[in-house]
Amino acid sequence: MSASSLRRLATVTAAAAALAVAVPSPALAGDLFFSKSSGIQVTTTWLEIGELPAAANAPGNAHFGDLYVEDLGNGRARVFGTVHDVECDEGTTPYLPLGGGHGEPAPPDGPCQLLGTRFVEGGQVTFTVDKKLTKATLSGTLAVGSGHGDTTGTPAVDITWTGIGATYSERQSGTFVDAYGTWTYRYDFTGRDAAVTPGSRIGPMVFDDEAGEYSQSLLGKYRQSDRQRS
């Protein structure tokens, strides 16, 4: 995934998370709804190559993952993500088969086959991040399941991110009118590319320790407001 794609993923994901934790404010005269929210986040995507120990319950020889961490303050965090387990023929550069992870069946043929998808849904973690987006850490255990409320594994997590390069800023805003009134929104995002520190891991998976593996990360903070007026 390119850096620009990762940034779009982070922006969209943060916007969804912001809606989930939006804090309503007292309505002004004529207002139907007003909310605002802000936060700091880390987003990571990766490819892990090779078979993992049986205890990891992760079939296949290639594993595509993404992880999103939202700072809740005082070391707490909201954590979610996905891991797609893939089996590729020997000599094939791993890729995620089309349809994988989006509800559609993967193609029946091809050198890489999607074997299954696991979901990260919270856990017992401690998260730290500084407001200048220079460093973040995540430690503890993650809750991994099938996406139906079950927990099939609790791998340990120990990841450190370091911001690299300059920060950048993006702003989205707009106004929509419908039968219920006028809805106005504004979303500001400041981000910085980040690198996973060597030795960082989730369970038996160590980031970027084998040839062909990669990870891409982003540290960011957002501020959002929404208003609907009759």
Shape: globular
Count of discrete alpha- or pi-helical segments spanning 4 or more residues: 1
Which percent band covers the strand fraction?
Answer: over 45%
Low-confidence stretches: 1-12, 14-25
Average pLDDT value? 85
- Share of helical residues: under 10%
Q: What sequence of helices (H) and strands (E) makes up the elements? A: HEEEEEEEEEEEE
What does this structure look like?
The protein is mainly beta and 230 residues long. It has one domain. The chain has one helix spanning 3-20, and strands at 23-24, 31-49, 62-73, 76-88, 112-129, 135-145, 156-163, 168-178, 181-196, 201-202, 205-206, 214-229. It has an 8-stranded antiparallel barrel. Strand 10 and strand 11 (205-206) form a beta hairpin. Residues 1-12 and 14-25 have low confidence and may be disordered.
What keyword list fits this structure?
230 residues; mainly beta; disordered N terminus
Short description:
The chain has 1 helix and 12 strands, in the order αββββββββββββ. It is mainly β and 230 residues long.
Question: Helices and strands in order, then pairings?
Answer:
Layout: H1 3-20, E1 23-24, E2 31-49, E3 62-73, E4 76-88, E5 112-129, E6 135-145, E7 156-163, E8 168-178, E9 181-196, E10 201-202, E11 205-206, E12 214-229
Antiparallel strand pairs: 1-2, 2-3, 2-12, 3-4, 4-5, 5-6, 6-7, 7-9, 7-10, 8-9, 9-12, 10-11
